[in-house]
């Protein structure tokens, strides 16, 4: 079975083909991705209307590219999957409309996929795929959650952010320091030149006794430190503050992830989402998991950000287990707000 996946939830247009063979983990045949970062940089963040229009321009050429790269005929596609939510409503509608129209033209079923489920399962496309059950840290610009994952569509929410997500904290603090959009990667690069001990920043909810997160207070603390530095803040102070900010976020993520492993009795952790590409986070998690003998799994770096491969994969794994809600009449909707724990 060959599944075409379409991702258009925010500012990346992703298209990919995966193939299933029996019960084996699906394999990636080809993928293509277009990022809108350059377009949105001038505005300091994603402009939803511009994002939607760009998805319209990109999705068909990318689909043609993927089919050519995989040397696969259009008629060979068995299912067309798309991101149904969560995300920007207009952007989601572009991918959903394209996917359902293509499926109707081919006479093949369409399947709406949860964006976060795609991230959650993306490590299965890596060279070292995990096995069920495991604890998952979903950490991105819009979401920070800890989940217990017993199988596809069997997810238990253990904790989540009560305000800003970790990636949002990275981006917002970076913007305060005058770094260009997207700020998270830029802040991480600047942190390489800083001393994290130069500023004493809070670790919100670190010892709360639960697995929830909060990062809005950290953002406020960074703003306070910048005001103390004044308008002539030097580059070294910025680097030190970037390092301190990154260290605070990573400390909380690592502490809560290890607490989730202890509480569950599991020794397998999956880290997915854009912040999962952060080098400092990976180093800390690698070291701490090695101490307790826990296995740690990440998606390939190219699959940490939004992409079509994770959407095609999630659809394929659901189809393998008979847990997919197939769309055969090609009517569609999108769900900009859609809790992962609500799907089954």
How would you characterize the overall build of this protein?
- The protein is of the alpha/beta class.
- Helix content is 42%, strand content 19%.
- The protein has helices at residues 37-41, 48-69, 89-106, 115-121, 166-176, 183-191, 216-229, 235-264, 279-292, 308-320, and strands at residues 2-7, 12-19, 27-35, 79-85, 110-114, 134-139, 144-151, 154-160, 268-272, 295-297.
- The strands form two sheets. A five-stranded mixed β-sheet has the order 3-2-1-4-5, with helices on both faces.
What's the short story on this structure?
The chain has helices spanning 37-41, 48-69, 89-106, 115-121, 166-176, 183-191, 216-229, 235-264, 279-292, 308-320; strands spanning 2-7, 12-19, 27-35, 79-85, 110-114, 134-139, 144-151, 154-160, 268-272, 295-297. It is of the alpha/beta class.
Q: What are the salient characteristics of this protein?
A:
344 residues, alpha/beta, 5-stranded mixed beta sheet, 10 strands
Rounded to the nearest angstrom, the distance between the terminal CA atoms is: 22 Å
Strand order of the largest sheet: 3-2-1-4-5
- What is the number of E strands? 10
> What is the chains' assembly state?
single chain
Average pLDDT over all residues? 95
Helix content: 40-55%
The arrangement of helices and strands along the chain is EEEHHEHEHEEEHHHHEHEH
The low-pLDDT segments are none
Label the overall shape.
Answer: globular
Count, helices = 10
Gyration radius, rounded: 20 Å
- Main sheet characteristics: 5 strands, mixed
The computed structural class is: alpha/beta
Report the sheet-strand fraction.
15-25%
């Amino acid at each position: 079975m060959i599944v075409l996946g379409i991702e258009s939830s925010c500012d990346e247009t992703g298209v990919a083909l995966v193939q299933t063979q029996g019960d084996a983990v699906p394999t990636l045949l080809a993928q293509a991705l277009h990022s809108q970062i350059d377009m949105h940089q001038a505005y300091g963040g994603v402009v939803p209307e511009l994002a939607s229009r760009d998805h319209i321009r990109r999705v068909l050429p990318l689909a043609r590219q993927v089919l050519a790269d995989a040397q696969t005929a259009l008629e060979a596609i068995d299912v067309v999957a798309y991101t149904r939510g969560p995300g920007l409503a207009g952007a989601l509608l572009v991918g959903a409309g394209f996917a359902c129209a293509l499926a109707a033209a081919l006479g093949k079923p369409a399947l709406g996929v949860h964006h976060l489920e795609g991230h959650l399962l993306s490590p299965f496309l890596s060279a070292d795929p995990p096995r069920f059950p495991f604890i998952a840290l979903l950490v991105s610009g819009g979401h920070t959650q800890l989940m217990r994952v017993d199988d596809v569509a069997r997810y238990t929410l253990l904790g989540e952010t009560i305000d800003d997500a970790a990636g949002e904290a990275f981006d917002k603090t970076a913007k305060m320091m005058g770094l260009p959009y997207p700020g998270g990667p830029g802040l991480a690069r600047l942190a390489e030149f800083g001393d994290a001990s130069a500023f004493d920043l809070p670790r919100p909810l670190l010892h709360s006794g639960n697995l929830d997160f909060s990062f809005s207070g950290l953002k406020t603390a960074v703003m306070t430190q910048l005001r103390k530095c004044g308008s002539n803040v030097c580059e070294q102070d910025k680097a030190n503050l970037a390092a301190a900010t990154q260290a605070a976020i990573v400390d909380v993520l690592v502490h809560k992830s290890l607490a989730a492993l202890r509480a569950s009795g599991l020794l397998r952790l999956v880290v997915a989402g854009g912040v999962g590409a952060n080098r400092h986070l990976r180093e800390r998690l690698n070291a701490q998991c090695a101490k307790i003998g826990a296995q740690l799994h990440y998606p390939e770096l190219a699959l940490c950000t939004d992409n079509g491969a994770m959407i095609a994969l999630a659809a394929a794994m659901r189809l393998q287990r008979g847990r997919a809600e197939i769309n055969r009449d090609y009517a569609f909707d999108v769900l900009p707000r859609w809790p992962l724990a609500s799907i089954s």
